[in-house]
Amino acid sequence: MGVSELNIHLFRKINDLGKEYTYLNPSFVIITEYMVIFLALSVVYFWFTRTENNRMMIISASFAFILAEIIGKTAGKFHSNLQPFAELSSVNQLIDKAINNSFPSDHTILFFSFCVSFMLFKKKASFLWILLAMLVGLSRIWVGVHYPFDVLVGALVGSISAVLSYILIQRVKLFNKLLEIYEKVEKNLLPVKEKSKDL
User: Fold this and answer.
1) What residues does the Phosphatidic acid phosphatase type 2/haloperoxidase domain cover (predicted)?
2) Which among 55, 99, 113, 137 counts the fewest CB atoms within 10 Å?
3) Is the model's pLDDT at 192 over the cut of 80?
């Protein structure tokens, strides 16, 4: 079985589950369409907790995503394939999507870049973040807009970028200096009210 045949075979195995277990389809549509909002809100929440660890985590995750997107777009120049619904028949397509190169999956790159970064900084919640990223990746196949290899490569690129970014953030002092400058400006614009102490 060649790579393309294996890709199609695995896609069919997962995507056809939506035809058999139709009651799960709404859940996977919500995951694939709206978990990005949850991720964005999590980023905002972590940033405005105003702790150094959380802010360095967001900086690391953002840098990881940018790096992963550059790698992903470069990979897309060397290999490309359209979405399964554009190439195959009888696809269980659950969301609308413009036809273009689906390799690798941008959604998967985004979630693995951030979720692996969150895992590296917040080890206690590592299982939940990785589970979220995996569910998003699975959902892209379930709704018919990506092949398994699109998702697998997106996950690898996002994860590797997150690890590289984590290592870089720990070693390059420039990020700490930039954060210090930002926080000085922030304190002037948005001062934190100190809690009054009982006498």
Assistant:
1) 57-166
2) 99
3) no
- Closest by Cα among 10, 5, 2 to 146: 10
Question: pTM of the prediction?
Answer: 0.87
Contact 140, 110 (CB under 8 A): no
2 inside domain: no
Tell me the HSE value of 113 on the side-chain side, using a 13 A CA sphere: 30
Instruction: Evaluate if residue 196 carries a pLDDT over 50.
Output: no
User: Is residue 158 situated within a structural domain?
Assistant: yes
- Number of domains the chain contains: 1
Q: Which residues are CB-contacts of 20 (< 8 A; sequence separation ≥ 6)?
A: none
Residue 165 CA neighbour count, 13 Å, CB half:
29
Residue 162 lies in a domain: yes
Q: Cβ distance 110 to 36 under 8 Å?
A: yes
Averaged pLDDT for residues 12-36 = 96
End-to-end CA distance of the chain: 77
Any idea which of 32-36, 125-129, 169-173 has the lowest mean pLDDT? 169-173
Q: Is 118 left (phi over 0), alpha (psi -120 to 50) or beta?
A: alpha
Alpha-carbon gap, residue 113 to 128, rounded angstroms: 15
Domain enclosing residue 128, as ranges: 18-93+101-187
pLDDT band for position 156 (cuts 50, 70, 90)? very high
CB 126 within 8 A of CB 73: no
Question: What gap in Å lies between CA 26 and CA 51, rounded to an integer?
Answer: 37
